[in-house]
Every structure is written in C-alpha cells, then in structure tokens.
C-alpha cells in the first residue's frame, strides 16, 4: 500500500460513493436501528442518578446492554473491571487475519451524577454516545463482504468523573494499555470538536485551634474560624496577581458549632485550575502559602491535603479534530469557530489524563437546550426526548471518524504524530527520561 492510500474495502462502490462512505452509512443505519434500545439505556441511567464510585445501577444497565446486544454473546463483557462500577466490553470481527496486534479502538462511557441535581452534566448521554458509536463501528464492519481488517473495539465504563477520577484509577490499573485511539463526547451548549479543558487540583484544608467560652474568656481560645476566614481573604487578595486563565473556587465546609464557643476546628475545600500542569503547580504553591499564612497569624495548626488525583489538561489532536468535523458536517452538525474554541470557557475532566497516555478525542455536543451544565434545567434537558436526536447524531460522527482511523493509515499516522508532538510540548517526554 502506498503512503496516503486508503486501506481497500471489499464490496465495491455505487453511484460514485466510495466503499468507505458506504461503511459510514451502514454505521449510521446501525445506530438508528438501535435508537430505541439506546434511548432506554440513557433514560434508565438518568432516572436513577448515582454519585461517583456508587454507580451500581448504571453499571448493571450498561453491562446487560452489551451482554444482550444481538447477535447473542457477540461482546465479551467483564463487569466490575478493576473498579466495582467499571466495566469492559470487547468485540472483534470473526475471521480477522492473524497479526501480532490489531488496531485497538476504545469508546468511553461516563455515568456518574451530581449531588442533589442528578444528571446535570448529562453523563447518561455520554454513556449512550459511547455505546452507540461502538455499535455503529461494529455494524459497519459486520457488513464487510471481504476479510475484515485486524481491529478490536473496546467499550470502557469509566465511573467517578465528577469526583475522584475513575479514568485515572483505570489508567493506573493498565486499562488503557495497548489502546491506539479513544473516543467519547460530552453534552454542552454548542458543538465543538475540542474545548481547552484545563488541569485541576483539589485541596482540603483543616485548621485546628482551641475551644473556649467566647464571652467569658475568649483569650484562652485559638480561633480556627478566623484562620479559615483569613485564608479565604488571602486567596481573594491573591486574585489580582492571578493570570486570567487561572481559576480558584472554594467553600468553608466547617466553621464551628455554636456562636458562644470559640471554634476549635474549621475546614475548607478548594479547587484550583490552570491551562497546564506546569501552571497549576505555580498556582497551588501560592495557595498553600496563603493557607499557611492564615495558620501563622491565628496560632492554629494546619493540615493541607491534596485530592486523590489531579486532572490533567486535555491534549488536542488536530488530525482527529479535522476528521470528526468533516464527518459531523456531513450529518448537519454546525461547529463553533476555532477562535471561539480557543477563547471559550471550559472545565476539567479526567479524560485529560487519558489524553496523555493514548491519542483521543473529547468533543462537545449541543442537546437542544440553552441551559447551562450543572443546573437543574440541564438535568431536565439531559433526560428529554429532544436530546436523543443530537446524541445519536454525535455518536454517528464518532463512529464515522473511527472508520476513517481504521481505513486511512495516513490519518492514524497523523494522529500518532500529533500525540507525540503535544507530549513533547508538555515536556512529559523529557520529564520521563
């Protein structure tokens, strides 16, 4: 095969449509055929929201979905994979030629919810997109009349995105080893092949003082609430020296038990975000100094504890962007401009950590509502019938992009080169030497 030449697809073209485009049509048809089952899957997850690492209902719904996916036993399903609420479902086309290692594509599902407001980030739709895109690829490859390409399709159920970082747990357990490209999509207010999700670090800060009667002898006490208030104020003053792309947000979780008792204990929880891990380290060092200064000023002792995992910034992969946009536009998806992408607001996700170990794409998609994520209105939108059209259209675009990866060797080469260059920019390759 000459460089830049597409992998041949058996079956022939018709009416000027290439073999690959016919496969993409078959992938979209397969998703449409499964639309009712996919919608039921999403609604089952949405109707019973579960917090991070507690998604037992969603885990059961998803594993049963793949176990029962026709034809019978076509997916090899491993429930409770590495984590109690994670799973792994794998499929390979029968009759694959023997090769040392097939091309291995991964589709990721999220399904945890938020406290009190349920699926206000639409993770039920993320699960549906991942499942639907995988079914689309499988359906297209099953339609091949010639020998299938050496490829494996894996669906990973990744719990605890909102709190804890389930994907990071799975990375550490080796779940992403040997995957070549990974795909997922996240609901939003617009369609974007990429948004600059930023690095994030959590901190819990605990001040310990000394209780005393607040009226009779306050001088005997050491006020832990004063330390918390000073820490909050220190960070507020620091904001003038923060870069516009840095974000700091926190709460005072515990500030005492009764007004006439000098608080002997206080607790704050803070999130820190920056465009890169390098900048995040600078920001968190400044914050730690603010917390320590408050302890020194009040005479309290302080405990500063980081979260279990830092979320890395998401590495962009322009080759995957372009392929996804090209396929999405054929389906009628209207994407925001690249300027809007680079200047838009964003959050954080444990997919960022995945993007440092395997090339991948994490696009955002409109679901028919102007409501903002993490609101009660978005919870309602994520469970609506209207969201189904947009969700399945996004799954089709992902499946079509995955078929490009399978049948266009030059695209896979470009994806890998983009991945390598971005890692070098982040200095991770140098850091590892």
From TrEMBL:
User: One Pfam annotation, family name?
Assistant: M20_dimer
* CDD domains, sorted: M20_ACY1L2-like
Spell out the molecular function terms from Gene Ontology. carboxypeptidase activity; dipeptidase activity
Which InterPro entries does the annotation name?
A: Amidohydrolase, Bact_exopeptidase_dim_dom, Peptidase_M20, Peptidase_M20/M20A_hydrolases, Peptidase_M20_dimer, Xaa-Arg_dipeptidase
Report the residue ranges that make up the Peptidase M20 dimerisation domain in this protein: 203-296
**Which SUPFAM superfamilies would you find in this protein's record?**
Bacterial exopeptidase dimerisation domain, Zn-dependent exopeptidases
Keywords (alphabetical) are:
Carboxypeptidase, Hydrolase, Protease
Q: Which catalysed reactions does the entry list for this protein?
A: beta-alanyl-L-ornithine + H2O = beta-alanine + L-ornithine; N(2)-(4-aminobutanoyl)-L-lysine + H2O = 4-aminobutanoate + L-lysine; N(2)-(4-aminobutanoyl)-L-arginine + H2O = 4-aminobutanoate + L-arginine; N(2)-(4-aminobutanoyl)-L-ornithine + H2O = 4-aminobutanoate + L-ornithine
Top-level lineage group: Eukaryota
Q: Which GO terms describe its biological process?
A: proteolysis; regulation of protein metabolic process
- NCBIfam families documented for this protein: amidohydrolases (TIGR01891)
**What is known about what this protein does?**
Catalyzes the peptide bond hydrolysis in dipeptides having basic amino acids lysine, ornithine or arginine at C-terminus. Postulated to function in a metabolite repair mechanism by eliminating alternate dipeptide by-products formed during carnosine synthesis.
Q: Which family does it belong to?
A: Belongs to the peptidase M20A family.
- What is this protein's name? Xaa-Arg dipeptidase
Q: Which organism is it from?
A: Pteropus vampyrus
Question: What gene does this protein come from?
Answer: PM20D2
């Amino acid at each position: 095969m000459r460089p830049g030449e597409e992998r041949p697809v058996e079956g022939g073209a018709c009416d000027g449509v290439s073999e690959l485009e016919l496969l993409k049509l078959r992938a979209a048809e397969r998703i449409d055929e499964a639309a009712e089952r996919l919608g039921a899957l999403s609604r089952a997850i949405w109707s019973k929201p579960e917090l991070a690492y507690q998604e037992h209902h969603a885990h059961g719904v998803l594993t049963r979905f793949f176990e029962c996916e026709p034809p019978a036993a076509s997916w090899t399903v491993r429930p409770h994979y590495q984590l109690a609420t994670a799973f792994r479902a794998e499929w390979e086309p029968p009759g694959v030629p023997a090769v040392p290692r097939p091309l291995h594509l991964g589709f990721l599902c999220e399904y945890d919810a938020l406290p009190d407001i349920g699926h206000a980030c639409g993770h039920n739709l993320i699960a549906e997109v991942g499942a639907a895109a995988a079914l689309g690829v499988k359906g297209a490859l099953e339609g091949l009349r010639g020998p299938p390409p050496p490829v494996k399709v894996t669906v990973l159920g990744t719990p605890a995105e909102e709190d804890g970082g389930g994907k990071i747990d799975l990375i550490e357990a080796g779940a992403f080893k040997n995957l070549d490209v990974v795909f997922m999509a996240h609901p939003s207010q617009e369609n974007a092949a990429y948004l600059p999700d930023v690095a994030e670090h959590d901190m819990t800060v605990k001040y310990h003082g000394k209780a005393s009667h607040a009226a009779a002898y306050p001088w005997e006490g050491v006020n832990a609430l004063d330390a918390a208030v000073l820490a909050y104020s220190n960070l507020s003053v620091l904001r003038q020296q923060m870069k516009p792309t840095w974000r700091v947000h926190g709460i005072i979780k515990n500030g005492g038990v009764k007004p006439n008792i000098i608080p002997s204990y206080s607790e704050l929880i803070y999130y820190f975000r920056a465009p890169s891990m390098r900048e995040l380290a600078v920001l968190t060092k400044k914050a730690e100094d603010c917390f320590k200064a408050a302890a020194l000023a009040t005479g309290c002792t302080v405990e500063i504890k980081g979260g279990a995992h830092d979320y890395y910034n998401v590495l962009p992969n322009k080759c995957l962007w372009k392929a996804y946009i090209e396929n999405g536009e054929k389906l009628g998806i209207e994407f925001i401009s690249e300027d809007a992408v680079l200047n838009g607001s964003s959050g954080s996700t444990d997919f960022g950590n995945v993007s440092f170990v395997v090339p991948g794409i994490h696009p955002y998609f409109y679901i028919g509502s102007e409501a903002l994520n993490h609101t009660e209105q978005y919870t309602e939108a994520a469970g609506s019938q209207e969201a189904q059209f947009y969700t399945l259209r996004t799954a089709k675009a992902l499946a079509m992009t995955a078929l490009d990866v399978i049948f266009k060797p030059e695209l896979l080469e470009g994806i890998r080169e983009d991945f390598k260059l971005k890692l070098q920019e982040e200095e991770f390759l140098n850091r590892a030497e």
